[in-house]
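Support reply, case 0932

Customer input (verbatim):
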Amino acid sequence: MKPTSNTFEKIYQIVKQIPYGQVATYGQIARLSGNKNLSRVVGYALHVNPDPDTIPCYRVVNRFGQVSSAFAFGGENQQVKLLELEGISVKNGRVDLTKFGWKKDVF
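Our regenerated output:
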């Protein structure tokens, strides 16, 4: 399936719903958007995030709770800094999904 702007818009609408102080996984966002196989597409959509001020893509981590590479957010450890400002602990580059994971659906 080739991603469409509608797919990206759906992803952005879901990411906007992630509560302050919580994170979601790429797979979780894919499932909530209607296709569990779109985890990579979620990553692509977030990489071209048109409005980082209202689409908090830094709240999305991989299935292990691991944060993205430094380049993704404009500087080394920027995602970690943004998460920690919300009270989300990041240890060894990972977030504890049992503690900080969004319970919108099952991981």
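We compared this against your earlier run and they match. Two observations from our side: The chain has one domain: 5-99. Residues 65 and 95 are 5 Å apart (CA to CA). Please reopen the case if you see a mismatch on your end.
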